Amino acid sequence: MSGVIVAMGGGGFATQPDDPRLDAFILSLARRPRPRVCFVGTAGGDDPHFLARFYRAMAEHDWRPDDLGLFERRVGDLRGFVLEQDVIYVGGGNTASLLAVWRAHGLDAVLHEAWEAGVVMCGVSAGMNCWFEASVTDSFGPGVAPLHDGLGLLRGSACPHFDGEPLRRPAYLQLVADGFPPGYAADDVAALVFQGGELSEVLTTSEGSTAYRVEVEGERALKARVL
């Protein structure tokens, strides 16, 4: 299945280790059985504790896990390594720093090529933000601020943690009302599934949690399928 991105406002193995439903759904999108799943923890500074949680979670699935560290880079042929994967799973953390490091290594262009070749892209928090043209982020300090230079695989803007962090909702609504690109927000256990750059469905692991289309006029809740 080509051109797939699963953008999660929260959830997955990092915050719901006892609930594998979102991660299992991502597995179902891979282009072959026993898919190769690569965790990219750049936004969290390649934190080894986060990486350990990933490998523990993957042990519960019939996946072949791997990881791509860029602070102590071990992979020489970045393009070849990424194109061999079936799923790229991007962790949370600092969106602005993630984008800067990816561009320094040329990973931004490689990910775009892999996405077009059928590698499933997914991620949570910063791993949601990065795929869009713009996003709302706490990368620059304790508050939230606009970021305008995402990868642009998806049009418009993104806001994760819409129900989980009190500053997110009012800041995003005000930014869009003031001219920031319209886009999508996702609650902490909700995910937006895009195919070919277009939204195909919204998923959640909890009744009442969902995603939203946010435009100048305000927010509109989207119908979510409970896994």
Provide the helix percentage.
25-40%
Count of alpha/pi helices: 7
Largest sheet: 8 strands, mixed
- Class from helix and strand fractions: alpha/beta
Radius of gyration: 16 Å
Contiguous low-pLDDT stretches (5 residues minimum) are none
What does this 3D model show about the protein?
The protein has 227 residues and is an alpha/beta fold. It has helices at residues 21-28, 48-58, 78-83, 95-105, 107-117, 126-129, 168-177; strands at residues 4-8, 36-40, 64-67, 87-90, 120-124, 132-137, 145-147, 154-159, 183-186, 190-195, 198-204, 211-215, 218-221, 225-226. Strand 12 and strand 13 (218-221) form a beta hairpin. The longest helix has 11 residues, at 48-58. The mean pLDDT is 95.
Please outline what is shown here:
With 227 residues, this protein is of the alpha/beta class. Helices cover 27% and strands 29% of the residues. Strand 10 (190-195) and strand 11 form a beta hairpin.
Give the arrangement of secondary structure elements.
Elements: E1 4-8, H1 21-28, E2 36-40, H2 48-58, E3 64-67, H3 78-83, E4 87-90, H4 95-105, H5 107-117, E5 120-124, H6 126-129, E6 132-137, E7 145-147, E8 154-159, H7 168-177, E9 183-186, E10 190-195, E11 198-204, E12 211-215, E13 218-221, E14 225-226
Parallel strand pairs: 1-5, 2-3, 2-4, 4-5, 6-8, 8-9, 11-14
Antiparallel strand pairs: 1-10, 6-7, 9-12, 10-11, 12-13
